[in-house]
């Protein structure tokens, strides 16, 4: 996947396009050599390795860049759960069929993604004194009464934006909330929001992987199924493979698509992003995708959600180190 993209980027550089690439060091450690950024620079592609691994740096190694952002000419932005790797397009099959979601945005909302990228870029390489030169002037406004609001999550402030958006969607739902998440390592606030919604009659459905990518993390996720299923939350395992999507949709009028997993690392430690959507046509497509995926998935029964003694003890021990996963 990356090689085909790289060919295009090299051609764009030759045509005078400003091409910039930023990738997380830890996330790419298994596939890229430490000097790979130098190869890109030689091709004319500006490159930054985010938070390069340093055993002396200590706790800041936990703060990874988990965002996926592509901005083109300030006119179009792409985001979502999809990393640039072959398994994400099912070119390589590791955990069954890989299910993911991405979103394409045009219009004034693209500016949010542009600022997210440039803010991070200039934290490492200060070269842009004026971000507005990258802003595209959309003179013809789309005829749409809704809202698209891309947002960022960062460990550098006191706002837990990603979790707040998730909780608000759940708490304000009247009819249904459907959720994609690869990891379900949630705190008391999230458990209460999900179960209280189900108790007041909201159809709460969560789709998790049927085939795990990390068995220990998957076992930890399963430890949260019992209280959810017992109180009426419907949990489904995507039997064809692995769900990597991070998507919420509710009541046909609200949705969010982004990079934020339902776990401690994404909600509190990583740099993340998402797009909040309200009263826009694409919400129907997001709902349909979830419904079609649920039809391919297996519902988790109360019996299956209740662990036997030894597994329960193992899960309890895993919860002690849950923030590390």
What is the compact description of this entry?
The protein contains twelve helices and 15 strands. The model has no long low-confidence stretch (mean pLDDT 93).
Model description:
The protein is an alpha/beta fold and 325 residues long. Helices cover 35% and strands 22% of the residues. It has helices spanning 2-14, 25-28, 36-42, 110-124, 161-172, 188-199, 215-222, 225-230, 264-269, 282-295, 302-305, 309-320; strands at 20-24, 46-50, 70-72, 76-80, 97-99, 102-106, 147-153, 176-180, 203-209, 234-238, 241-243, 247-250, 254-258, 272-278, 298-299. Helix 5 (161-172) packs parallel to helix 6 (188-199) and helix 7 (215-222) packs across helix 12 (309-320). It is globular and about 60 Å long. It starts with a helix and ends in a 5-residue tail after the last helix.
Strand order of the largest sheet: 7-14-13-12-8-9-10-15
- Unreliable residue stretches: none
Shape call: globular
Global Rg: 20 Å
Quick check: average pLDDT?
A: 93
Question: What's the structural domain tally?
Answer: 1
Biggest β-sheet strands, sense, barrel? 8 strands, mixed
Number of helices: 12
Tell me what portion of residues adopts beta-strand conformation. 15-25%
* Strand element count: 15
- CATH C-level label: Alpha Beta
CATH topology: Endonuclease, Chain A
Structural class: alpha/beta
Cα separation of the termini: 27 Å
Which terms would index this structure?
alpha/beta, 35% helix, 12 helices, Endonuclease, Chain A, 325 residues, three-stranded antiparallel beta sheet, 15 strands, 22% strand
């Amino acid at each position: 996947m990356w090689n085909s993209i790289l060919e295009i980027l090299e051609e764009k550089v030759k045509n005078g396009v400003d091409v910039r690439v930023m990738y997380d060091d830890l996330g790419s450690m298994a596939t890229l050599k430490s000097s790979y950024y130098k190869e890109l620079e030689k091709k004319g592609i500006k490159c930054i390795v985010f938070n390069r691994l340093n055993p002396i740096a200590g706790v800041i190694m936990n703060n990874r860049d988990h965002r996926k952002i592509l901005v083109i000419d300030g006119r179009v932005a792409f985001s979502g759960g999809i990393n640039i790797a072959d398994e994400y397009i099912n070119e390589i099959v590791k955990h069954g069929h890989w299910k993911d979601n991405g979103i394409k945005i045009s219009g004034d909302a693209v500016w949010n993604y542009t600022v997210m990228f440039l803010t991070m870029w200039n934290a490492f390489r200060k070269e842009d004194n004026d971000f507005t030169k990258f802003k595209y002037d959309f003179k013809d406004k789309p005829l749409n009464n809704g809202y698209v609001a891309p947002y960022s999550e960062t460990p550098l402030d006191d706002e837990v934006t990603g979790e707040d958006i998730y909780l608000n969607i759940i708490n304000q739902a009247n009819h249904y909330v459907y959720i994609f998440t690869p990891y379900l390592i949630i705190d008391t606030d999230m458990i209460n929001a999900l179960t209280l919604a189900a108790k007041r009659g909201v159809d709460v459905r969560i789709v998790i992987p049927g085939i795990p990518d990390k068995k220990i993390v998957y076992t930890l996720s399963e430890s949260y199924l019992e209280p959810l299923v017992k109180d009426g939350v419907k949990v489904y395992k995507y039997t064809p493979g692995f769900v990597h999507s991070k998507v919420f949709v509710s009541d046909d009028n609200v949705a969010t698509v982004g990079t934020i997993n339902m776990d401690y690392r994404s909600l509190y430690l990583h740099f993340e992003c998402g797009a909040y959507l309200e009263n826009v046509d694409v919400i129907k497509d997001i709902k349909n995708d979830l419904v079609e995926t649920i039809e391919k998935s297996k519902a988790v029964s109360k019996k299956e959600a209740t662990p036997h003694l030894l597994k329960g003890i193992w899960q309890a021990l895993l919860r002690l180190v849950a923030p590390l996963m």
